[in-house]
UniProtKB/TrEMBL annotation:
It comes from Antarctobacter heliothermus. PROSITE patterns: ABC_TRANSPORTER_1 (PS00211), ABC_TRANSPORTER_2 (PS50893). The lineage of its organism: Bacteria, Pseudomonadati, Pseudomonadota, Alphaproteobacteria, Rhodobacterales. Its EC number is 3.6.3.36. Residues 9-236 form the ABC transporter domain. Keywords: ATP-binding, Hydrolase, Nucleotide-binding, Transport. It comes from the Bacteria. Belongs to the ABC transporter superfamily. It holds the Pfam family ABC_tran. This is Taurine transporter ATP-binding subunit.
Length: 259
């Protein structure tokens, strides 16, 4: 028996009403995301990648179609804490230590002090920030801050992790390193990940599925199932298989412009 998808989007539409008239952000988006998959969304700026992630998180509400998260409405899923969300900027509170930043969602959810301490220790270990608990965000590099924000999203152990261009502002070496770490973390935790990126190599390196989107109104032009093995050293990027997938992503992006 196959489990039902974690995310099920069917003919999703979203039009924002703005002072300058309607903005059609998503058009007829249908997609199933299976448990344990790593799904990247790639497409030109403004094509609705963030909007789609925000719909899953119930931060935006579609104007048409249907969307379920773990079989629930996005609002129900939000109340059930079905996901952790990592934003483009780390968004840590400067007056709280790393440990207290990571503990924040647990505090809000009413975990006991002892449970908070235990979970914070576990997730900081997962993102390799053990020993930095008492530091303040400004004492950490950009990459470490982003790792701390991932730890915060992992703190309450939701099965689904939504990540909106988490490494976009980092230099390439740090980004490579965090990509490797994220894959290890995904393998260890078996979470389902939805990941927005502008980078073709990043999407191909990380994903089991790559969703290619067209310029506004955002539609899905291709969903590529990666043939790459789960175990991926960084030099996999030089293999013909990798280059072939990257080529198909590029073609999909180009097709979106030409339609
Ligand atoms: N709250 C809003 N009100 C009005 N328009 C919005 C709102 N949020 C997004 N948009 C518009 O919807 C479109 C899709 O935006 P979105 O941020 O989802 O794109 P994106 O693909 O994530 O872009 P980027 O890669 O630049 O982050 C854009 O044209 C944007 O201006």
């Amino acid at each position: 028996m196959t489990a039902s998808p974690v995310i099920q989007a069917s003919h999703l539409d979203l039009t924002f009403q703005t002072a300058d008239g309607p903005v059609h952000a998503l058009k007829d988006v249908s997609l199933d995301i299976e448990k344990g998959s790593f799904v990247s969304f790639i497409g030109p700026s403004g094509c609705g990648k963030t909007t789609f992630l925000r719909c899953i998180a119930a931060l935006e509400h579609p104007t048409g179609g249907s969307l379920t998260v773990n079989g629930m409405t996005p609002d129900e899923a939000r109340r059930a804490r079905a996901y952790g969300y990592v934003f483009q900027a780390a968004g840590l509170y400067p007056w709280r230590t790393i440990g207290r930043n990571v503990a924040l969602p647990l505090e809000i959810m009413g975990y006991s002090k002892a449970e908070q301490a235990e979970r914070v220790k576990q997730v900081l270990e997962l993102v390799e920030l053990s020993g930095f608990e008492k530091k303040f965000p400004w004492q950490l590099s950009g990459g470490m801050q982003q790792r701390a924000s991932i730890a915060r999203a992992l703190a309450f152990d939701a099965d689904l992790l939504l990540m909106d261009e988490p490494f976009g502002a980092l230099d390439e070496i740090v980004r490579d390193h965090l990509n490797e770490e994220l894959l290890k973390l995904w393998a260890k935790t078996e979470k389902t990940i939805g990941f927005v990126t502008h980078s073709i190599p990043e999407a191909v390196y990380l994903s089991t599925h790559i969703v290619v989107m067209s310029p506004r109104p955002g539609r899905i032009t291709d969903v590529i199932v990666s043939p790459l093995p789960k175990e991926r050293p960084l030099d996999i990027r030089d293999t013909p298989e990798f280059i072939e997938v990257a080529h198909r992503v590029r073609e999909g992006l180009r097709a979106g412009y030409e339609e």
